[in-house]
Design brief:
Length: 453
């Protein structure tokens, strides 16, 4: 593994590179934060970053924030020519591995480099071992590969994760994989569906209760936070939790302790919290239905599950895997899809996403009359919802010039991405790696409006 040195002073970069080279540690060099982030995006062999605090443009503390969000497992050593206790404390509070003052002490540099690279090496070895037993996610499409990469980056940390996406996209599977690859994988994984528990029972479910604390409390009961101690608590459908329960969850996250209903003794808990929702929580915050402070407590890192319609050939991969599993579980003879059946499944939007596809395939496995499953079988199993027509004609057939084609294609692309993000401009701009101001200009240029407005 290599080190990455980000410093605007060429003399410091070269001196640090030579110091590391004396210990057979190769280093990549970057003169500012933008260039450093680009190096990290292009290479996967960086195991340590030396980062100068004072640089033109974005300073080191800003870049550290980006790294803690996007590469939380990567050790970052901050460098300053104006070192102070306050600066060092601020850097370590933001997640820096350690802090160095200029002029750099050669021996200290080498000790820090060895320790940091050893930590990265162990973390990657543990991740490889854990992946062998982690929850399996099927897919080769770009959206799924991006999802898996995000999981692999955040799983080894203790950061809280907000998992977002439409119903049926596999948010629970993502949560289980995050747990399986985490430092607390040896501990329990406890899941709570916040939408399925009656409002008046949710507090008891989450925090537990003492015997006699309310009618029907015939015995002491541990809550989900206690049961998840030392492991992971997955709060599914967090957007459906009422405001009173939100306030109490926030207090637990701040204090790391719970009180059972009817009790007065605080109970310390160490729990990694993952949350999931199919709602736009920022919109819920604006509407007063979700606490802003809780949103930011839960959303340290956001992981988005792509809808099935954006996953292309993953649809047939998933369908084939689901079919083999259904045949095995139900003791059926071998089944296979015809080419026409696969083509038909690829043309469907699957509004219920992976969950809908799995249910349709299970139906096909059980009710298919022969060994081959054809397009009419798929239409029947999907309740006639699957579009059984030929693919639509080329929407750009009437376009006269290349410039007109580019504009129409760009407009259609932006509309689709806005729809994917529920017309949240900030999130869409982040997805497209585009400045928000540029996206607003495109929206104005093409006269785009959210339906109903």
């Amino acid at each position: 593994m290599k080190a990455l040195i980000i410093d605007d002073d060429p003399g410091v970069r070269e001196a640090l590179r030579m110091t590391l080279k004396s210990d057979k540690i190769d280093a990549e060099l970057a003169e500012d934060g933008r260039q450093g982030l680009q190096v990290l995006a292009e290479r996967d062999d960086i195991g340590l970053v030396f980062l100068d605090i004072k640089m033109p443009g974005r300073d080191g503390m800003e870049i550290l924030g980006d790294l803690r969000r996007d590469r939380p497992e990567l050790p970052v050593v901050m460098i300053s020519g104006h070192g102070s206790i306050d600066t060092a404390v601020a850097a370590t509070r933001e997640g820096a591995f350690d802090f160095l003052e200029k002029p750099l002490d050669r021996d200290r540099v080498l000790v820090l480099a060895r320790n940091a690279l050893r930590q990265t090496s162990l973390a990657r070895e543990n991740l490889t071992l854990k992946e062998r037993g982690a929850a399996k996610m099927i897919g080769q499409s770009e959206p799924v590969q991006e999802l898996l990469a995000s999981i692999d980056r955040v799983a080894p940390t203790h950061a809280r994760v907000l998992i977002t996406g439409e119903n049926g996209t596999g948010k629970e599977l993502v949560a289980r994989r995050l747990h399986d690859l985490s430092p607390v994988s040896h501990g329990p994984f406890v899941d709570v569906n916040c939408a399925a528990i009656p409002k008046d029972l949710l507090e008891s479910e989450l925090f537990g209760h003492e015997k006699g604390s309310f009618t029907g409390a015939h015995a002491q009961k541990k809550g989900k936070f206690e049961l998840a101690d030392g492991g992971t608590l997955f709060l599914d459908e967090i957007g459906d939790m009422d405001l009173a329960a939100q306030a109490k969850v926030l207090r637990v996250l701040e204090q790391n302790r719970v009180e059972r209903v009817g009790g007065n003794k605080p109970i310390e808990v160490t729990v990694r919290v993952l949350a999931a929702t199919n709602k736009d929580l920022l919109e819920e915050v604006r509407e007063g239905r979700f606490r802003e402070d809780l949103y930011y407590r839960l959303n340290v890192v956001e992981v988005r599950c792509p809808p099935l319609r954006d996953r292309g050939d993953d649809i047939t991969l998933l369908a084939t895997a689901f079919l083999a599993d259904a045949v095995k579980r139900n003791g059926l003879s071998t089944r296979e899809f015809t080419v026409a059946a696969k083509d038909l499944m690829l043309r469907e939007d699957w509004p219920g996403n992976v969950r809908q596809l799995k249910n349709v395939v299970e139906n096909l496995a059980i009710l298919a009359r022969g060994s081959s499953i054809d397009a009419p079988d798929v239409t029947r199993a999907a309740g006639g919802a699957v579009r059984n027509e030929a693919p639509p004609e080329d929407p750009y057939r009437s376009v006269a010039t290349f410039e007109e084609f580019k504009e129409r294609a760009e407009r259609d692309f932006i509309v689709r991405r806005l729809e994917d993000n529920h017309w949240n401009v900030k999130r869409t701009a982040e997805t497209l790696h585009m400045q928000r101001s540029n996206l607003y200009k495109k929206i104005e240029k093409y006269g785009l409006k959210k339906p109903g407005k």
